[in-house]
Design a protein that fits this description.
16 helices; alpha/beta; disordered C terminus; 2 domains; two-stranded antiparallel sheet; 387 residues
Length: 387
Amino acid sequence: MRPLRLGFPVKVLARPDLKSHDTRRWKNGPHLRTSLACLDRILDHLREHEIAMYRMSSDLAPYATHPGMPRFHGMVAESAADLAAIGAKARAQGVRLSFHPSQYVLLNSADDRLTRQSIWDLSSQAEVLDSMGLDDEAVIVTHVGGVYDDHDASRARWIDGWNRCPAHVRRRLVLENDDMRFSAADVLWIHGHTGVRLVFDHQHFCCLNPEWLALRPTLEAFLRTWPAGTRPKIHFSSPRTELREVKRKVGAGERAAAGSGRTVAGQTTRKAVTATSRTKTVLLPPVWTGHADFTNPFEFATFMRAADGLDFDVMLEGKAKDLALMRLRIDLPRYAPDVAARFGLGAEAAARIAADEARLAIGVEAAADAEVDVDGGARAEADQILA
C-alpha cells in the first residue's frame, strides 16, 4: 500500500516569493494563466520537499464567475492547454490537488440568488479540475452553511442545492463536518439522502459532537462514503492554546475608577489601566475552534493510532502551512515512529528530515540565503538550537 500523504493549504510560507494565484485587481487584467504559472512554481517547491498533497487557492481563476464582469467568464476555457499541462505535471509528481471554496459559497442559502451564484462558483472550480485531467481524488470541499434560525430546514435545503448542481460538480463535491453548526451526524444524514462523499475534520468533531458519536466508528462511516479505489482525505489541526490579546478602548468610567484607586473587576489586562489610558490590551482564553500554527505531534499520533488500519490522506490546516507540515515530519519519527512509517517517514527519509530541521531551526529564508549544508555548520547550529 502506498504511504499516506500529508498536505497543506494555499500559501507557501517557506517561500514568500511564491504566490498562490494572480492577485491583481480587475483593472489590471488578472487571468487564470498567470495563476497557473504561480501553481507551476509551487509544484516545483512541492517536488523539492517531497510533498504530495496541496490545496489550491479558490481564487485561482480571478473574477471568472463575477456577475458584473463578463469579460472574465471565458478564462477557464481560454486556459485549456495550460490546465492540461499543469494537470499532467501534478499527476507525474503524484500530487493530490483540491479546492476549498470560501464561506460565501453556500448551497443552503436562504437567498436563492446566492445559491445560484454558489453553484456557478462550484461549476467553475469543477471545470478547472476536469480540464486538468485529474481523477476523483481531486475534490471540492464545502460545508453545509448557515442555520438561518432553522437547523433542520437549512440541512434539508442543502440537499436541494446539491440536486441543482450539474453532474460535473456532484462528481467533485465533498461535504465536511463543521465546528459550530452542522456536526458529523448532520453530514452523515445528508450523505444518506444524497450519496455525497464526506471529509472528516478532527478538530471540528471535537468541538461539535452533540450526539456523542464515538471517534473510530464515525471516522469509518465517513471513509465508507468514498468509492473503492478512491482514497479518502481528512482534515487535521490542533487548537490554539495561547492567550488572545484584544485591543479595546478604555471607557471614561474605567479611567475615573483608576484615578480614584479602584480596580475594574472581571478583566485581565496586559498592563494596569490608569487615569490617562485610552486603550487597553485584554487577555482572553483561547477559542478552541481556532487553528494553531503547528500540529501537536502527540495529539496527531494519538488520533492516528485510533485510526490504525484505515486508509486516508491528511490535509493539515495549521496556520504555518507548509512549515507545519515540515515540522510534523520532523516530530513523527522522533516521537511516534509507528505513525511516521505510515507516511513513508522511515530511515530512507532521514536526509530530507534533517534538511527540513535545519531550515526550520535557523529560519527558512536565512537557510535559503546561506544555501544550508545539513552536514556542516548549519546542521550543527540547528542541533544546538533544538538541544
